[in-house]
Amino acid sequence: MSSGFSLSRILALMVKEFIQMRRDRLTFAMIIGIPIIQLVLFGYAINLDPKRLPTLMVAAESGPATRTIVAAMEASGYFSIAPGLASPAEANEALIDGSASYVITLPPGFERDLVRGTRPQLLVEADATDPAATSNALGALPQILSSALKRELTGPLATQASPPIAVDLVIQRRYNPEGITAYNIVPGLLGTILTMTTILMTALALTREIERGTMENLMAMPATPLEIMIGKIVPYIGFGLVQVAVILVCAQILFHVPMMGSFAVLLGVTFLFIGCNVTLGYTFSTIARNQMQAMQMTFFWFLPSILLSGFMFPFRGMPDWAQVIGSALPITHYIRSVRGIMLKGSGPADLVNEIWPLVAFWLAVGALALFRYRRTLD
Amino acid sequence: MAGDRPEEIIIDIHGLTKRFGNKTVVDDVSLDVRRGEIVGFLGPNGSGKTTTIRMICGLLRPDGGSGTCLGLDILRDADRIKRQVGYMTQRFSYYEDLTIRENLDFVARIYALPDRSAIVKKTLERLGLYERRDQLAGSLSGGWKQRLALAASVMHQPKLLLLDEPTAGVDPQARREFWDEIHALAEDGLTVLVSTHYMDEAERCHRIIYIAYGKIVARGTVAEVIERSGLSTIVVRGHDVGAIARLVRQKTGVEQVAPFGNDLHVVGPDAVALKQAVDAALVETHSDALAEPGETSLEDVFIRLMQEARARDHSANGTAKAESPS
After folding, report:
1. Residue B234 is inside which H or E element, if any?
2. pLDDT 10s digits, B140-157
3. B82 interaction partners in chain A (CB closer than 8 Å)
4. Which one of A208, A209, A216, A217 makes the best mutation probe of the B interface by having the most chain B beta carbons within 10 Å?
5. Does residue A47 contact residue A317 with C-beta atoms inside 8 Å?
6. Which runs of E-coded beta strand occur in A109-156?
7. ipTM of the complex
């Protein structure tokens, strides 16, 4: 073997690889860009202990003890309590559409019963679809309440403040009472698997034609850019729907994920989401010059999609700028929709805030693809 | 054939120009092709043949010039031109991972041909590929791929067929059959513009256009182009043609010296000077080789045209460089 080993030959390959890498600007940008983006996202955006979760108060009347409880919960940093009181119906709505993570309900006569020492009920309803996002705040709640009430119930009432805690704290983990992680992971996986596969499929759509030399022929034939786009993305929408069926059947058989909402709504939202992805992939393929670049772009998109969508890490734990980026990603709205439909039984009316971003995204990338499509070989 | 009527001009372009960056690839090209004609488009590699063809069928946007193709404006009506033109690319550009029939089906659907299955079946039978219709196109040999590509590009019965070096890498038998097919199509009124490197193919065209460095440098029938070149040829036959070749190359009046087997073709612009040069060389080498007048070939003419064009191009670029300080 000694005669079969040549440093010159190795050097020849090394030099060639380096030249090719340098010529491919996108690869070069990825080498620099991906580590920076990962560092920023992991370092600043991801927070496993989400704070300032939106909370609504439902109470018949307000009093000094109520105000103390509100102040203490705010001070803990976990809760961001909306000013004023909400009705039970409003609070329920807010939990379903996801605009509130917690609802605190104080029964009528709470202030009076607290002073009498009859341990009134304090009901906390939490949106437990993502157990990781809610558990820390719930865990801290007894301590927050007892130290707050200790300060409030001073003087002759001090005995009521002593342990056990002066209120009967009732916690309801709604939508996922047992805190089963799979319930949260399955909708997220649905989103990430679809993002990865469907974008990649269509990202290769045009670049493959270019690399195989069939693009010139296709362009010489009388097909319009819109016809080519529709013809190329529709098969992959079908492909994505088959994937969804497979994932849902497995989720049912293996993890017994409940299905509270309707399949029709799930199908509709899934169709929108796959539409966004295949069109985005097609847009990539109008920009990429070869299949390698198309795959790199897909990967580049995939990174924020798993990190900033609320799939792996709680969305509300992220700083505002990361939430803004996350809100621009279709997967964020899709994961919320699927969690809502499967676990909360959300209907189209509850999902309006998730559906319109998907529609807007689809139209925007579709327009971009048609704008980017090169009708000539120039 | 109705090709004589002057109103039936299929391609009529003027001053077509295309630049890639600061390089002018096609420079002020004008050409006209009449109905039923087979026009050969010749020129060295990189001379702008493919670029010109692509501009005619709307695949490239010209930087200058104007023209019509099938009576439609090549700048504004590219979409309508595409429907009536068949274009066969230099590289096989149908789908290698589709079968022969699937490829033809695809093309028939793209052109929205009525009675698709009948047309595809007829095409397969005419090609002699009906038995192999379910074979992948990628597994075909070069000659068969070329026949498939031709069949696919005329299936929608175009009025104009653009062929970009259609017979590159195809054996002589297949080339012969291909050209028979082209002539049969032209008999039916199809107009053909075909680019090629092969001289024998140029001779099968009604008319040829020679392009070099983006400019048209000769046009007409083969006989006309040879005639106008004014070149004379002497064929030297016998022993020691190698020594004669080395010597005669230095003489004035000799432009090209090319051995053909045991023969030597000596070409020059002036018949008298050429004769003197060859005779002198024979005397100097004490050779008993025979020198007799020969026919100037198209290849000799093209090499001359190419050399002239190169000289012009270099001198033009030289001035351009002198003018700009970069």
Report:
1. strand B232-237
2. 988 899 999 999 999 999
3. 220-222
4. A217
5. yes
6. 121-127
7. 0.83
Strands A53-59 and B72-73: unpaired
- Options 3.40.50.300, 1.10.10.10, 3.40.50.620, 3.30.1360.70; CATH for B9-97+136-226 is 3.40.50.300
* Mean of pLDDT over chain B: 89
Cβ pair B278, B291 in contact under 8 A: yes
pLDDT digits (tens, 9 = 90+) for B225-258: 999 988 999 999 987 788 888 888 888 889 999 9
Average pLDDT over residues A278-285: 95
* Statement to judge: residues A167 and A225 lie in one domain: no
Which of B50, B52, B54 is best to mutate for the A interface (most A CBs within 10 A)? Answer: B54
pLDDT digits (tens, 9 = 90+) for A44-95: 888 878 888 899 999 888 888 888 888 899 898 899 998 888 889 999 999 9
Amino acid at A241: L
Compute φ and ψ for B63, nearest 5 degrees: -85, -15
Q: Which domain holds residue A87?
A: 53-174
CB contact under 8 A, A220 and B57: yes
Euclidean distance between CA atoms B36 and B292, whole angstroms: 40
Q: Does the structural domain B232-295 have CATH classification 3.20.20.370?
A: no
